[in-house]
Amino acid sequence: MSCRGARPTAPPDAGTFVAFAPDFAGFRQWQRTSLGRFSAGGHLEGPEQYAYINRPRAPSARTFQTGTIIVRTLERGPPATWQVFASVKRGGRYNARGNVGWEFFRLRIDPAGRVVIVARGLNPRTGLQDPYATGGDGAGCNTCHGSADARLYDGVLSPAVRPPDP
Ligand code: HEC
């Protein structure tokens, strides 16, 4: 079948990915990278910090594919008390003025081990007692992940996960 030529009827967000709770359900089985003890300045620090990724980037790729989910955990105590963040490559023009193409999530693990979405969007607010409750002092995930510097790395900041230097 030939698909060449213009496809004027395609909606503007064709080919994008919108994540729901089942998409995060198995994250603890994904490829896991230790982020070390210290955060590079963004998140709270702790001895057990990890990034889990469902769709690892090809080693030389400068961007992550639409549909990529990166979960960041601070694993202190039982899973139901962990801090769990996620960035999801939705694609298209989502978050066009920030970390382009990426949606932010606050997640938690319930006592039965299920992954629950607490908040999502450009600046997820949670009501939790932590500095990210208002998106990081009211600043929001885009303050760091959508900065000009971060965008050189497709908005991914961890040296262990981000694309190679330009
Ligand atoms: C004050 C700056 C800052 C804010 C605000 C911030 N982050 Fe981060 N984030 C970082 C830095 C720096 C890293 C890499 C080092 C690390 O993991 O500690 C990171 C790492 C991550 C990672 C692992 C993948 C990556 O990009 O390296 C995810 C996922 C993530 N953050 C999600 C979020 C979400 C969701 C929010 C908002 C609720 C948020 N972050 C707010 C600075 C920030």
Structural description of this entry:
The chain has one domain. The chain is 8% helix and 22% strand. A hairpin with an 8-residue loop joins strand 3 and strand 4. It is mostly beta strands and 166 residues long. The model has no long low-confidence stretch (mean pLDDT 86). The termini are far apart. It is built from 3 helices and 6 strands, in the order αββββββαα. Strands 1-2-3-4-5-6 form a 6-stranded antiparallel beta sheet.
Largest sheet: 6 strands, antiparallel
Give the count of helical stretches.
Answer: 3
Q: Give the tally of β-strands.
A: 6
Report the span from N to C terminus.
38 Å
**Helix proportion range:** under 10%
Mean pLDDT: 86
Give the topology string: H per helix, E per strand. HEEEEEEHH
Query: Number of domains in the coordinates?
Result: 1
Kindly provide the radius of gyration, computed on alpha-carbon positions and rounded to a whole number of angstroms: 16 Å
Q: Which structural class should the secondary elements be placed in?
A: mainly beta
Describe the global form.
Answer: globular
Bound molecules: heme C
